[in-house]
Write a structure and sequence with these properties.
seven-stranded parallel β-sheet, 2 domains, globular, 25% helix, homodimer, alpha/beta, Glutaconate Coenzyme A-transferase, 15 helices
């Protein structure tokens, strides 16, 4: 079957249809204007639900029958348990036993723990996956073995796709560390505590039918009701829903690499020099070693300057929690907790606030929090001289990562990518990224161990830092230095002419495709 | 113009259309099954909103122009400021100046402070009002002077009507005691604090366009964001949005009437005798003098028995707050705060929980909290021998009250109406209520100063209390006693054959009509 392609605003060729659905090529940032109305879930009536509020059923099988699961439907799940999820493999085992086929699995992300779902693809239970595929599932798709095409979306893009009706969820499965019989549930407590459940919020609001799965049933009311029981059809109690050690790491580690520490320090010095670090500022940094080190450096600077942040955005870690508890920030606005201290703080600190992709990232809303941030510090696998960046594939073309909130954060007032200029002798600064995940116009600053490159569009930042003494240089100069050291640009990966995945932009248009690797076959 | 009527399941005649919309007659509790999907608000895009999140505009006029208000649209508002609202009269003054006509005003309730909106009806700015009309606006409608027909809905019914698309809100105006520039807002703090904003939640989620009006702008983020800025189009700052003394009463008063105290005590004794008062129970009682006295009596009993409630439902008052802070209840699940202590507790106590008509009352959801309550204690203007009850008109036919959450609470496991058997020598227990607002099948117990009547459907309650020594008697016997004392049934009001309002049931069907009073003309 031949596929028709259109070229998008960044010059990439985009298939007209993917998994049977028409696609719109990326038109440029802010150019695509959605028309029409939000998705409208079916009406329900209390007359069809137990008046005593007890929705507990005896098993996953019973719950899946109750909600009417059928061939070809879409089943969704969240990834707050990360690599410690004990629910979805069991769910698909039960579905296989029920003889139901050709499902679309729509997780907010999948992890190596979901490797058994390769078997559920082989036996026809799962048709294909839309959502990030980390590890074995991504490898399976990269080999061209998945029946449909992967669709990678940011956290905000996933909300947008559900809200806009691009993805219709028939059955949402929401694994919950604590729940009541009515279906109210929370992630901030219980033996499998994961902090929050924001990635499942859209599913609970828009799915036709919703199943909550918990290992910690508490008397009504379960508060905070991060997910509201009024959207829930059935509750299933299992012995164990998550593996705590793999849900959150007990400790989060700052990088010890001298290069990475230098990059983190340069990033902190840059935000100070640019006037971004001021009383009442805000920032987001992830849980990677460099980002954590950045948070430590700016914390020191804030103490020194006697200033505080108005809010910091999580993924929360013990470092952000320390900032909150020390008074270096008024609030943590958190989208997911990355360690046990984050979970504890979410439960205990009233100013550690539960956010969702709706509040933080949804581009088809009346604004969101991402664009209010003064600075965001993110990673990338590749950046090119047009400041386009890649987070899903490496230079060798392998699909290894999801998008997460990365695309959404690019709308921050200053987007900074502190990255090494090369990894394992492979250049990270390149002429053209393998896969465009972030358009260069939104990426403001690249910080490497060889110097800082500012996007020429940001004359304000160039002016503000020109007398700072920081090693600011054109990105082409960094690229040239790297190419000299590595012996030239990275080898181009060889692809088969088959899309194994597409990369959605935050507005539902298509930024790029990921092709099947020749080397894998 | 002649109107066609159909008889509903309770024998009342219901117009086929009201305000141009087709109506379904009440079919019986739980009999009407909604089909179709929820209302779907228009898609928005961040590209159309300020990236710095600042949605503040200079005036109400500017905001109303920005959201595109036009003739014939529906403008909604909430009633958390009760009789202290300073916003909606100003809004309609501005609309009048703009020359916009024939609006439908859709408040969650209106109060005597809104008397100036009679002028906005006379000058054509407002076409008609759907929502409870307390005081002068109700009187104006009762005289047949409002152009359209009033539609009275319960709090849950209002959510259901919005959610189901029966009422489309073009522009929601949300007065907020505290807000940020992005439109996040809360009711629990600020000079005009009213506790919470739950009655405006549906408006914020489903309206095409949303304007927040505040007198207390705080730096982003305003938390708790009871209303989320992602649903907000514009923010207007006024000098003063509410009159604090009229928003909440500083003190809430327990009845001193010996009869009312007796009724409250009998009610408390009944819930104990019936086995409802047990460790982990739950109840809802309003802010009226009798209900407050009931709460005091059951608190004493709980102390005596060494038990506590799992939750009590507010309207919160200082009495419920004392129960929470003393440990007599684990939670207050609150829908509106009735006094300053309620506002303080909502702000300070993590177990004083913000609820909305969605969580508590919406009948077109997958269950709600009302049916989980062990007992609810409510008022009524009339009850008939079939246990049908009335809360909107008096025996003289005057429309004096809204429905509030009253209909929704009837789904409690035990609905008790502690009421005097007569008021001002007019019988309250009658042969047939003037207006049916609650079907008798949901009303379990009537407690009067002359004895307790149990609905014959509730054999379980009859059995449980038969040896209690409580003065339990048939409702007909109470009616006969009252009629003997008052000289017979109340005089039938004389009506003109014109509907001035209809009474919706929680599922959107029509329970009854209210006719124009002949005496008023």
């Amino acid at each position: 079957m031949s596929v028709d392609y259109k070229q998008n605003a960044l010059g990439r060729f985009i298939p007209n249809t993917v998994n049977g659905k028409e696609q719109t090529p990326f038109l440029g940032v802010g150019k695509y204007k959605p028309v029409g109305n939000k998705a409208a879930p079916p009406l329900a009536t209390c007359a069809d639900y137990p008046t005593d509020g007890n929705k507990v059923v005896g098993s996953l099988h019973e719950a899946l029958e109750k909600v009417g699961l059928q061939d070809g439907m879409t089943v969704s799940s969240h990834h707050h348990f990360r690599n410690g999820d004990l629910v979805m493999n069991r769910v698909f085992d039960v579905i296989k036993e029920m003889g139901i086929k050709d499902l679309m699995w729509f997780p907010s992300a999948s992890f190596p723990c979901h490797a058994p779902l390769i078997e559920r693809q082989k036996d026809g239970t799962i048709h294909h996956i839309e959502g990030s595929m980390n590890g074995p599932l991504g490898d399976y798709a990269s080999q061209g073995k998945m029946r449909g095409t992967g669709v990678l979306r940011s956290h905000g893009g996933r909300w947008q796709a559900i809200q806009d009706g691009e993805v219709h969820i028939d059955v949402a499965v929401i694994a919950a560390p604590t729940a009541d019989q009515f279906g109210n549930c929370t992630g901030d407590r219980g033996p499998s505590a994961c902090g929050l459940l924001g990635f499942a919020l859209a599913d609970s609001v828009y799915a036709d039918r919703v199943i909550v799965v918990t290992d910690n049933l508490v008397p009504f009311p379960c508060v905070p009701w991060q997910i509201q029981g009024q959207n829930v059809d059935a509750v299933v109690v299992l012995d164990k829903v998550g593996n705590p050690e793999k849900i959150v790491s007990g400790t989060t580690k700052i990088t010890r690499s001298p290069d990475r520490l230098l990059i983190a320090e340069l990033t902190a010095k840059f935000v100070r020099a640019a006037g971004i670090l001021r009383d009442g500022w805000s920032f987001q940094a992830g849980a990677g070693g460099t980002a954590l080190a950045f948070a430590i450096f700016v914390s020191d600077m804030m103490r020194e300057l006697g200033i505080k942040a108005r809010f910091v955005r999580g993924g929360s870690t013990k470092y952000l929690v320390e900032m909150l508890e020390e008074g270096l920030t008024d609030f943590i606005l958190d989208g997911q907790t990355f360690d046990l201290e984050g979970v504890r703080s979410m439960r205990e600190n009233p100013n550690h606030i539960n956010t969702s992709p709706f509040t933080s990232y949804n581009y088809h809303g009346k604004g969101n929090f991402a664009s209010l941030m003064d600075a965001v510090v993110l990673g990338a696998t590749e950046v090119d001289i047009n400041f386009n960046a890649n987070v899903v594939t490496h230079s060798d073309g392998r699909l290894l990562h999801g998008i997460g909130g990365w695309q959404n954060c690019l709308f921050s007032k200053c987007t900074i990518l502190p990255i090494p200029s090369m990894r394992d002798r492979v250049p990270v600064i390149v002429d053209e990224v393998t896969t465009i995940v972030g358009p260069g116009e939104l990426i403001d600053v690249i910080v490497t161990e060889r110097g800082i490159a500012i996007n020429p569009r940001r004359k304000d930042l160039i002016d503000a830092t020109k007398s700072s003494g920081l090693p600011i240089k054109p990105i082409e100069q960094i690229r040239d230095e790297v190419f000299r050291l590595t012996g030239g640009p990275p080898a181009k990966p060889e692809f088969v002419d088959k899309d194994i995945a597409i990369i959605k932009w935050v507005d539902g248009t298509v930024l790029d495709t990921v092709k099947q690797l020749r080397i894998n076959n």
